From TrEMBL:
<dbReference type="InterPro" id="IPR011051">
    <property type="entry name" value="RmlC_Cupin_sf"/>
</dbReference>
<keyword id="KW-0732">Signal</keyword>
<dbReference type="Pfam" id="PF07883">
    <property type="entry name" value="Cupin_2"/>
</dbReference>
<feature type="domain" description="Cupin type-2">
    <location>
        <begin position="56"/>
        <end position="124"/>
    </location>
</feature>
<protein>
    <submittedName>
        <fullName>Cupin domain-containing protein</fullName>
    </submittedName>
</protein>
<dbReference type="InterPro" id="IPR013096">
    <property type="entry name" value="Cupin_2"/>
</dbReference>
<dbReference type="InterPro" id="IPR014710">
    <property type="entry name" value="RmlC-like_jellyroll"/>
</dbReference>
<feature type="signal peptide">
    <location>
        <begin position="1"/>
        <end position="26"/>
    </location>
</feature>
Length: 138
């Protein structure tokens, strides 16, 4: 189905999804999100009004996950593939399987996968309850 043949409502939903995921429309007319987060578990932590989210993260081969922030800390561990962590104001940091990083709350960052296979990570987020996991950065 091409974008021209989609109903107005379907286009609005697709546009919202593309904005959130930071996906670009491929020439074939199908969306391929550069970043996919799959929540594994969510639960309370010992800090009042905070929760932890553990997620599997995948960054598509050759893709860049758009600039965003988190309302809490991110702690991630690379399972496979390779990536570049792009934190505003810092040089790109190259990462591969077995390496980890920590990003404090509110820091604008992005990620890029320069490799030919998906980058796979486990991400742990400690967030204020009721807040979105991520927010696109301006």
């Amino acid at each position: 189905m091409t974008q021209q043949s989609m109903s107005l409502g379907a286009r609005a939903i697709a546009a919202l999804f593309l904005y959130w995921a930071g996906a670009a429309m491929a020439q074939s007319g199908t969306a391929t999100p550069p970043l996919k987060r799959t929540e594994i578990v969510r639960g309370d932590v010992s800090v009042p009004n905070r929760e932890a989210i553990v997620a599997h993260i995948e960054i598509a081969a050759g893709a860049t996950a758009p600039r965003h922030t988190h309302p809490g800390d991110e702690i991630s561990y690379f399972l496979g593939g390779e990536g570049e962590l792009l934190i505003d104001g810092q040089p790109p940091r190259r990462l591969k399987a077995g390496e980890a990083f920590i990003i404090p709350a509110g820091i604008v960052h992005a990620a890029r996968n320069p490799g030919a296979e998906p980058a796979r990570l486990v991400g742990v987020y400690i967030l204020e309850k009721g807040q979105p996991l991520a927010t696109p950065a301006k």
